[in-house]
Write a structure and sequence with these properties.
By secondary structure, the protein is α+β, with helices and mostly antiparallel strands. It folds into three domains: about 220 residues, Porin, CATH 2.40.160; about 50 residues, no CATH class; about 120 residues, 2-Layer Sandwich (60s Ribosomal Protein L30, Chain: A), CATH 3.30.1330.60. The chain is about 15% helix and about 25% strand. The strands form two sheets. An eight-stranded antiparallel beta barrel has the order 1-2-3-4-5-6-7-8. Helix 3 packs antiparallel against helix 4. The two termini are about 75 Å apart. About 5% of the residues have low confidence.
Length: about 475
């Protein structure tokens, strides 16, 4: 819809201008270009196919194409020019991928042109040193596909503007620019041209009007305070710093050189922003709000510790770890991360905090030993018959060095409670002393006595009291 409106407006302006330019063009040896019956121009044109496509990445090393263009004008009156032009754009598919061939090709562009000239005696003088104009074209294209060599014909409608800067009488430096609206087998593109333009024919001097000259107020079409003669963009409000051309986003880069003219950006990115400040323009940054590196398209390194587990799934993203421990270190490889592993150098299940489980047979052996240690009656002296049992306890504790041991003493309810408490403490301490003597580290052993407070059987029977007189070995995680 926007294309239709732009095209309709351009054509309406051009055709309605015929009524204004009713007089024939004067043949004036001192005039700017466009005021003789015929004009001829030759120059070069560059085309930008990249920006209109709004691509984030390009396989081309340089998306700007260029080629020659020849223009012929017929000037039926001072306002209108009808013309023909012929041009070409050169293309290259050179890439950084060494496996792909470099293919160079070109296309041909031929078009009919209708232009409205502002140096028509109504807006600007016929011999104005700066002679702007606007134009629209009906443009055909021909190209040959690089690989299949098929001929492809296309059609587009370019519209734009140009300026003839007078160099000498009937000779001007021509610059022009515009936008091609693709219709068929064609691509939208922005084009910029520069070259020379000359009026053909000798011409003759125009009679000088003897009427006193009327001082005209300088024209400022866009109302930006810069008169059209000094305004490089006379129809668009701009600023003096850019000779009357605009800087819409105020980033200090004029719109014609700003690839992102409506968003403030940086000169190093041709006016486009870099929100995360990682040195990668947002248009090429897959993560524009998070600092990253070019290797990952502007995103952060997805695996900082290099353990093969992406940061989002890695519980320890800055320390190499194992998959089964969710990216955290796991020296014993049991799937329990070292920080949570009570036995980080010995494999064990998570249910046992990473330590090996003590099998039921070992538990039975410890329970048997606890029930069968005998002491001298009323004393904390271990009977020799119990040495073998305690030796087996020491052997078990050495087999499981990652456990600490609570050695607890208990008595029945016969006798004074305070004396029983003291007796239970002494007997537990005696068991600890024996085990230390058998090579069990003292730091692993803690003794305590509970007297008659924790019976495991009924003290009303002899059998029950015998069970309550005991020493227990309770293994604990360090």
């Amino acid at each position: 819809m926007k294309k239709s409106i732009v095209l309709f407006s351009a054509m309406l302006i051009l055709f309605s201008s015929v009524a204004l330019g009713a007089k024939k063009p004067p043949k004036n040896n001192k005039s700017a270009v466009g005021n003789s019956r015929f004009s001829l121009g030759i120059g070069m044109e560059v085309a930008d196919y990249y920006t209109p496509a709004l691509k984030k990445a390009s396989t081309f090393k340089n998306p700007i194409y260029f080629g020659p263009r020849i223009t012929w004008w017929y000037n039926p009156n001072s306002s209108i020019a009808i013309g023909l032009d012929l041009g070409s754009h050169a293309f290259s598919t050179k890439t950084d991928n060494l496996t792909l061939p470099t293919i160079n090709t070109y296309n041909l562009l031929y078009s009919g042109l209708l232009a409205y000239k502002f140096n028509n005696g109504y807006i600007l003088k016929n011999d104005a040193a700066v002679a702007p104009y606007i134009f629209a074209k009906l443009q055909g294209t021909w190209a040959q596909t690089p690989v299949t060599k098929q001929n492809v014909n296309g059609f587009g409608i370019p519209i734009g503007a140009g300026i003839n800067f007078k160099i000498a009488n009937n000779l001007a430096l021509n610059v022009n620019a515009g936008y091609n609206f693709a219709i068929k087998n064609n691509n939208d593109h922005i084009f910029f041209g520069a070259g020379l333009m000359v009026d053909l024919g000798k011409g003759k001097e125009v009679a000088v009007d003897t009427v006193a000259a009327v001082v005209e107020k300088p024209i400022d079409t866009d109302g930006d305070g810069i008169i059209d003669l000094d305004d490089a963009c006379p129809t668009v409000p701009g600023i003096a710093a850019f000779n009357g051309c605009p800087d819409t986003d105020g980033d200090g880069i004029e719109d014609s050189k700003d690839e992102c003219p409506t968003v403030p950006g940086l000169a190093e990115f041709n006016g486009c922003p870099d929100r995360d400040g990682d040195g990668i323009a947002d248009a090429k940054d897959a993560c524009p709000d998070v600092k990253g590196i070019a290797k990952f398209g502007g995103c952060p390194d997805p695996d900082r510790d290099g353990d093969g587990i992406i940061n989002e799934k890695d519980k320890c993203p800055d320390v190499p770890g194992s998959f089964i421990a969710q990216g955290c270190p796991d020296r014993d490889g049991d799937g329990v991360m070292d920080d949570e592993d009570k036995c980080p150098d010995v494999a064990g299940p998570a249910s046992n905090k990473g330590c090996p489980t003590i099998n039921e047979e070992v538990k039975k052996r410890l329970a048997f030993a606890a029930r069968n240690i005998q002491f001298e009656t009323g004393k904390s002296i271990i009977k020799p018959v119990s040495y073998k049992i305690l030796d087996e306890v020491a052997s078990i504790l050495k087999e499981y060095p990652y456990y600490d041991v609570n050695v607890d003493g208990h008595t029945d309810n016969v006798g004074d409670a305070a004396k029983n408490l003291k007796l239970s403490q002494d007997r537990a301490a005696a068991a600890v002393t024996y085990l230390v003597g058998k090579g069990v580290a003292a730091s692993r052993l803690v003794s305590a006595g509970y007297g008659l407070t924790k019976p495991v059987a009924d003290n009303k029977t002899a059998a029950g009291r015998a069970q309550n007189r005991r020493v227990e070995f309770n293994l604990l995680f360090k």
